[in-house]
Amino acid sequence: MGDRPRIHLREELIALADAAATQSLSLIAAPGGTGKTSLARAWRARLQSPSLACAWVGLSEAHAELSFFAADLVEAIRAAQVDAGPAGSGAATFGESIQRLLGLPSALDLDQVRRRLVLELRQLPAPPVIVLDAYEHLPESSESARLVDDLLRLDPCPARFVLTTRGRRPSAFARLLAGGQALEIGADALDLRTSQVADVLGDEGVDADPALVTGLLARTRGWAIAVRLIARSLAMQPPERRLDCIRALGDHDDLFDYIGGDLLRHVSPDARAVLEVAARLGPTTSAVLTAAAAPDGDAIAGLREARDAGLLLLEDDRLVLHDLWREWLLSPTRRPASGSDESTLRLRLARTLREAGHPQDALEQALVAATAPEAMELIETILIEHGHAWLHMGQRRLVGRSLAALPPDRVESVPRLAALEGLRLSGSDPDRAIAYYERACEAYRAAGDLEAEGTCLHELGVIAVNENRADVIRRVRRRIFAVTRATRGTPLRGMILMGLGVTAHLAQRYALALRLLDVARTYEHHPREYGGIVLVQASILFFQGRFDEMLRRLDEALARPEQRRHGASYSVLLVYRAMVEGARGIEPDTQRLRLEEASEFFARCHYTNNRLRAELALAHELRRSGRINEALEHAELAVALARRIELHEATAASLGICARLRLLAGDKDRAGEAAHEALACLPTPDAWSPNQGFGPAFVPGVLLAGLVLAELGEEETAARFLQTHRRLLTRPAAPIAEHMRLDVTSRIASLRGDAAARDQSLREAWRLAERAGLDGFAPELDEALLHGSAAAARALGLRGAVLDRVLDETGEPPEPPLALQTLGGLELQVNGQAVPERAWRGSTTRRLLARLLVADERGVSRSGLEAELWPEVPPDRARTSLRTALSRLRDALEPRRRRSPNEAPLVRVDGDRITLEADLLAGWDVARWRDAAQRTHAALEAGLRSRWQRGLAQLESLDRGAFLPELDDLWVVEARSAFEIERGRQGQALAKRLLEAGDEAAAQRLTARMLDPDAEREDARGLDPPDPSP
Fold it and tell me: Distance between CA 510 and CA 525 in Å, rounded?
């Protein structure tokens, strides 16, 4: 713990440490110099063990700023965990999420820090003891004090707090004390007793004469620091004068002022100079203190004397003055021994520290003396030398304070300062950052400093892309080529290659972009630039559907320790990883948490485009989990973000996603409004952003808006929109977006009744998927749409590995060659082609098929069919009519040109009994509905969310209405009633299981659909997935 002089503490005070380890708060409150810190250190020494970690944070005025407090708190807890041994498992990773927040370019968010700190504390093996020494330095209004208060109000508190303070208490203290969860040690308990005063005198080599002890105790009232300092002063006096010195203390009102002046009279000028410099530097290293005090004499000898006298203490490898000493030495009524005024002394310290290689300490001293012109020059020089490095290390507040100390016109006119201000503002005020960067670029260009201009152009381009500033992007793109030809520096070439790669990406030349960025990665980059390279590559691979390769590159980047410490790029990379893992159903709760944290990060950094993508990814993830209303909230936030940066295709895409979500929630009116609003954002192709690199990201959402309108009965409006924007919606280099365009085109064509266009688009969509070897699909293509498209493609006879994988993932049986629809009306499809009306050759054939279906595999006797279908016809004519109807039914089911002697008939006659073959019954929608219900139950039982959602989608697609509504035969009415009862029971059972699984939105839709057969029948297309039948 260093060489802090020993304070004689009573054993009963030290023993209270055991109680402090069980209380939420232990408060040691007393004036300065009473031994508060000594008691807290004794407690820490007693409690620290392999089973309990004890962290120590010595507070100062700087800790009122949340960033400093949070950083030191995390570091202290991490160090304590290491010291604790087994109890400190996880010390290496403790506080990582908070440290990433500390790299934010804007102010920390208190709620975020609190939430993450609580999560990390509760993951520790045991609640740690956290000592906050000198709590009075945290003003009640500061966020640091509010953080401590918030933690103390938690039940249970995630840590055991020990606070030393001269007076100020946390606002939660009174409640905790009343509830028996707090302990208080006051000044009376800390006052030294007679035996302790005698021990202190003995430590200093002074005989503990009873009269001397009594007189010293009476004058100091047991004030520990006064007893200690007077004992040292007495040790310098002859024994016969010591009692007179004690009596002389009574003549002075300010005891500490008298003691301080008396002690300084006994130290050398070198030691006094060291003490005065130490008072101005605050806690510092011996190297910095020696360098700063060197001009005033023999700093090394003075440092040694001050330590030997106990006036300068060593705490955790840093030299400190007691707070009372520091305050006394800096008192406005005292002039430094050098006779210089405070500003001059600070400026001299700053220059000395800079020359000695301590620029940050020098800058702090120069800021105190900032009113002097020489101080302004020194601040500017230090910022130009070290500002960029400090910003990249997260020292944004130090740089911000320093720039604010300079005249604004000076910051704007000096290119390096303008670039520095641009970098600092890049996360908090993008518009002003762009203005500063452009001024710096112009100044560098005028001065012929191409290397500096290239660096500045790169930073400017990153901000412009994120803020959709197409005009700035064009200017940067044109100028960067000229800079490339003129520069030869290796680091700059790496950055220029990265810029060219990004430019190729924006121009949709993806293969070239990947190659350029692969080369750029071979150069050494700051984590921000390296993360940007991987991000652009991940974006390209995502829209090419190469998810496995994308994840490999992301994992390589995320595994780099320096990348983990750079919050901005790390969060963006996590968003892309969460998008892919979420689409694959991997730990959905983890992906949501990652996306929420990333979005909050981007909100504070003002990274609008990145936050927009995170919000859309959250909407998709919540939709997959069935939380439609929550998904809508995030999609609507994405709409607001897209409007803020005037990115019209992003606004349209976000509205398209809102429209689809509202349709899934059953709100057709508002779904239609959102879809119309989306199309209004893009009245003509000119409304799209000139920066075409954004296109693939938002094409699927734009297409979704058109699809929703088509499903609501506005097929022609949707078709016209797709045709108007065909050139911009067509993205052959981005297979995911192009596959969705073809799927949506097919669906709209189907709704328009254009079978040829429907089939052509469907074939192109799945052939494209096979050629590209897609690992995944656009998240906007929800499961109902995707699997409806896949089923329709299979019905067309398409084959391929990607299509097989999609259909295999459903866990559903393959689409039967004969699809027999009876819910909502009788319709038969053979190999995807509807049997035309003329093929039935009358209604009797339909009635015969219906009667055999109701009988299922049991069949019906000839006589029974004759009596039920022709009750008023003579038996011989009824037999003839049955033979004719059977022949026509076989012709409809198995056209003669397709019938083979080797194929079993679909209508089987065994003696007097007629039945339908199992192959035909397998394609009956009622049988398939029952099978889908069973598979959905099984998926819910196994907790397989993606499978139960696909099962629900198939149930909805099959459930088109009442059973054979066009027939009113008694046996049809009975079968219809029985199926409605079955539908209701299944709906109740499934809805109950869905609620238990947390899928409330799906439960509501299912209940509305199954328990109210007439609801939503008139226009069910808004809820149905694409019709699997062409």
Answer: 22
Options 3.90.1570, 3.10.380, 3.40.1350, 3.40.50; CATH of 11-190: 3.40.50
Give the C-alpha separation, 694 to 700, whole Å: 12
Q: Where are the beta strands (DSSP E) in 804-883?
A: 818-821, 827-830, 833-834, 860-861
Per-residue confidence (pLDDT) for residue 529, from 0 to 100? 75
SS3 state of residue 984: helix
Specify whether the CB–CB gap between 547 and 514 falls below 8 A: no
What is the per-residue burial (b if ≥16 Cβ within 10 Å, else e) of 755-768?
Answer: eebbbebbbbbbbb
DSSP secondary structure string for all residues of 686-702: GGS-S-GGGHHHHHHHH
Q: In three state form, how does the secondary structure of 392-421 look?
A: HCCCHHHHHHHHHHCCHHHHHHCHHHHHHH
Q: Which residues contact 572 (CB under 8 A, 6 or more apart)?
A: 531, 535, 598, 607, 610
User: Of 729, 715, 732, nearest to 685 (Cα)?
Assistant: 729
Q: How far apart are CA 277 and CA 271, in angstroms?
A: 10
Residues in CB range of 1022: below 8 A, 6 or more apart: 663, 666, 668, 671, 708, 711, 712, 1016
- For tokens 């209701």, name the residue: 984
Query: Which residue ranges in the chain fall short of pLDDT 50?
Result: 1-5, 87-88, 339, 490, 896-903, 1013-1030
50: CB partners within 8 A, 6+ apart: 84, 85, 86, 87
Chain-centroid distance, C-alpha 431: 24
Give the SS3 label for residue 184.
Answer: strand
DSSP letters, 562-591, are HHHT-HHHHHHHHHHHHHHHHHTTS-HHHH
CA dihedral 876, 877, 878, 883 (to 10 degrees): 100
Single-letter residue type at 182: A
- Please state at what angle helix 588-605 crosses helix 608-624, rounded to 10 degrees: 160
Q: Are 26 and 182 in contact (CB under 8 A)?
A: yes
Q: In what order do the strands lie in the sheet with 907-910?
A: 860-861, 913-916, 907-910
**CB 493 within 8 Å of CB 519:** no
- Residue 834: phi and psi, rounded to 5, are -70, 135
Amino acid in position 31: P
Query: 10 Å Cβ neighbour count for 45?
Result: 12
pLDDT of 682: 92
Beta strands in 911-1009 (DSSP E): 913-916
Beta-carbon contacts of residue 519 (< 8 Å; ≥ 6 apart): 497
Contact 702, 516 (CB under 8 A): no
Strand partners, 29: 165
What topology is assigned to 818-919 in CATH? Arc Repressor Mutant, subunit A (1.10.10)
pLDDT single digits (tens) 330-360: 776 565 555 457 788 888 888 888 888 888 8
CA pair distance 535, 557, nearest whole angstrom: 10
Tokens standing for 142?
């500061």
Which pLDDT score is estimated for 718? Answer: 93
The CA–CA distances, whole Å, from 1029 to 793, 794, 943 equal: 9, 10, 30
Q: How far apart are CA 623 and CA 827, in angstroms?
A: 33
According to the model, what pLDDT value does residue 899 have?
A: 45
User: Which residues touch 505 (CB under 8 Å, ≥6 apart)?
Assistant: 513, 536, 539, 540, 693
Distance of CA 661 to the CA centre of its chain: 23
The amino acid sitting at 503 is T
Angstrom distance (rounded) from CA 938 to CA 922 = 20
Helices (H), 330-449: 342-355, 359-368, 373-392, 396-405, 408-413, 415-425, 430-447
Report the CATH fold assignment for 607-781: 1.25.40
pLDDT given for residue 680 in this prediction:
94
